[in-house]
Amino acid sequence: MGKPVDVPGLSGSGEAGEPGVPTGQGDPAGQGDPAGQGDPAGQGDPASQGDPASQGDPAGQGDPVGQGDPASQGDPAGQGAPTDPSASRDSAARPARLRRAFVFGAVLVLLLAGAGLLFQAHRLTSTGATANRALTDASATTRAIGDVSNTLGKVFSYAAEDTGATEDAAKGLLGGRAATQYAALFGELKQRAAEQKLSLTTHVVRAAVTRLTGDRAELLVFLDQRAQREGKPATTAAAQLSVTAQLADGHWQITDIRAR
């Protein structure tokens, strides 16, 4: 048998009919990738860059205007939320309302004051007010005060040894209910005055006519009374009386006496 023949380009023998690994550099061109640079774009697999949307802004600058999301910037004019027109109108109308309220209150006060003055004027000009001569007739008022003061000074003043003179004077100066009251009171008083040697002096301090109509007068009288017992210090007391007097024969006669 002859010597085996070597076939160029094959390594070793391997199994019959199975080619071995090509000799040299593996890749038939000897350079691997035809371009010698791997990925033509130099960036690997185009799909390996991930989702295009995950890359952010294509220009690499984020928001085109550099301010983020337009909705997150607030007022585009930089002045906050838009002004509410109704709030502006309310603010402008408030001073006017306050002025109107002030003017209304002032007018109301003036109206009430005017109504009060009119009421007082009506009272002064009404029949009841004009009938009261104590407000208009100074002469008649003075006469009534004088007569009543003199009468009270006489009927409430007496001496222990002569009570009869006071009792007789009262009969002509007092009338009506006052005469009856005085007679009952003085009947007890004159007996005690004689036993205790008691004297009484009455002086009218002040008197005023509260009402004077026709022949009837109403007075308010303030008295000072000084009582003296034999052998003891004198005592002084004040009294206040409401007196009614009736005009008879040109003289004011007391018809009623009430202590106040």
Structure description:
- By secondary structure, this protein is α+β, with helices and mostly antiparallel strands.
- Helices cover 37% and strands 20% of the residues.
- The protein has 5 helices and 4 strands, in the order αααααββββ.
- It has a 4-stranded antiparallel sheet with strand order 1-2-3-4.
- Helix 4 (164-173) packs antiparallel against helix 5.
- The termini are far apart.
- The model is unreliable at 1-60, 62-68 and 74-78 (pLDDT under 50).
Brief characterization of the structure:
With 260 residues, this protein is of the alpha+beta class. The chain is built from five helices and four strands, in the order αααααββββ.
Spell out the key features of this protein.
alpha+beta; 4 strands; four-stranded antiparallel β-sheet; elongated; 5 helices
